[in-house]
Amino acid sequence: MTQRTADPLQAxxxxxxxxxxxxxxxxxxIVDSWQRCQGMGLDSGANPQPNPVSRHAVRxxxxxxxxxxxxxxxxxxxxAQAVADTEHVVILIDDQGRIVSAVGEAAARGPVLQHxxxxxxxxxxxxxxxxxxxxxxxxxxxxxxxxxxxxxxxxHMDCLAAPxxxxxxxxxxxxxxxxxxxxxxxxxxxxxxxxxxxxxxxLLRELRSPHILRxxxxxxxxxxxxxxxxxxxxxxxxxxxxxxxARLLGVPQQQAMGRCLGELLSAxxxxxxxxxxxxxxxxxxxxxxVFATLAEAEDLAGRHRRPPPGNVASTxxxxxxxxxxxxxxxxxxxxxxxxxxxxxxxxxxxxxxAVAQFISxxxxxxxxxxxxxxxxxxxxxxxxxxxxxxxxxxxxxxxx
Length: 400
Fold this sequence. Notes:
This protein is an alpha+beta fold. The protein has helices spanning 8-15, 20-23, 28-39, 55-64, 66-82, 124-127, 131-138, 188-205, 243-249, 253-256, 269-273, 335-345, 350-357, 361-374, 380-390; strands at 89-94, 99-103, 142-144, 158-165, 171-179, 211-216, 228-232, 238-241, 279-283, 289-296, 320-322, 329-331.
């Protein structure tokens, strides 16, 4: 009985020797990778071995990738904490495919991941189709499940990876999570991409540009860790932007570099300067509506700041929660903010709360900033006193 191969993608996969069980669900990225591996003369039946790395080569690598390693360090720890006890390994890889650092329990690593150390080459040339090596080529997030690996010796493991880009659009590295003993946990790709977003934010901050434009289609998301960011020079030219910022503008990052902001948005730097710190409703070239706030570059180095209430034109008021007799209206706290409040009341440190919430300390500070603002408090003790007076520490957490 012949197998049905009407799907062109499935037919291509079968033609290149991919396992039939996977052929029907294989992405085009995987098929292209298998073609590249065959073009390099790799033997799919081989058991790949990590290339030897000298101490001198590792020292050179760490010097070369110092910026990437430093800005990604906290995100690696946070992501590793989020997948703790799942036998996953978090790996940071540079633009040449070399491992910069790997975080995960050594005892949980199998025969492949036990060799995940600084300097090891993860490109397709050495490891065939694998999430990190394939993401470097495709410049897209990639998920590679067991039988989708080109080498038979890797078909017991799952891995996924997302590329990291500099503010100018150049690839600087890849963030990878791999596991040899069990399937990847659900929702891991979204978690990895969120980590990449925060790493790209830190890379943009390193530009030290005089102005940062923060934008998002939803006004409430301006000032959060997931906003679009555009770094501007003195004359209003674009000197850098993150991936989401480029998507909102509708142009690739590299094509946006050096262009005047007014060419891509319905306002220039001079107009925005007059409304510094206020959220302004703008239109992109493609006609998309976005809310943007111009800020000094130093603002990006501190807490995330939301635009002051009342500065957004034609925006519905935020929902309010009436708490206590005569206490006045308080902006609704999210479920996470109420949980953080209770952890504050338990006496946990910022680091302990961040670990418990599976977020970075920087993201926690952003939540605390929002909590303090909603409760009209300036400190932890002030926020707790206000929350007790309103009965929030005893209330059931509200929906986000």
